[in-house]
Amino acid sequence: MLMSAAPEVEHELFLTKIFNDVLAGPANAVLKMVGMKEDARPWDNALPMELLVILLMVLLFAFLRSRLSVDKPGPLQHMVEVIYQFLGQTADEIGIHHSEKYVPMFATLFFLILFANLIGLIPGLESPTMGYAMPLGLAVVVFIYYNYLGFKVQGVGKYLAHFMGPLIALAPLMIPIEIISHLARPMSLTIRLRANMYAGEQVTNAFMDLTRLVVPVVFMFLHVFVSFLQAYIFSLMAMIYVSSSVEEHHEH
After folding, report:
1. Does 6 score more than 50 pLDDT?
2. pTM of the predicted model, to two decimals?
């Protein structure tokens, strides 16, 4: 099943219904290819929401690109530039040399997670970061990315030597610890993002069901704050992992 691994999602969104009515055949074909059972309603809410987020991002940044201005930047351009510069400064402060090469990746993670977090505020839609699929997918991308950079920047030998610790005598102890530590990183990123967004979404929905006046507005602002915060934390952790994978190369 093309699901988000979030069994607590019990209702089918309007967009998900369209996917299940129109694209159930292709989805079941994919499930059959990977050895899974076919399902009458193979689409869960998460994947249609992720595709919608990506579509909205493409349209928004295409619109922004067509109106870029050096002399008179609009509010949207100014906000994006401020966030991009802030992420670049953060990467520099962490100690990533030539961070401009990596900031596009960090910014992509930030805006993708931010949009996915905020889309849940729109009636009839849900944040795909509420489930496990999207956070886990992004966490695996970060895991592959920083390890790839480690091999690329340091070379295979030097990067693998990092797992042995500062002394050869400690290698039998350090190698299992380092491997477990690295494998735990995707789990940590996944649980942190999913848990915070799921809790925030449930609190916001609960108060919106109770009243439509001032209190829901307060919790909606809280949801926006948490959305920005979690997008930043995820990007920050990616920066830290990249820094640890390339720093030894620069020290030598």
Report:
1. no
2. 0.87
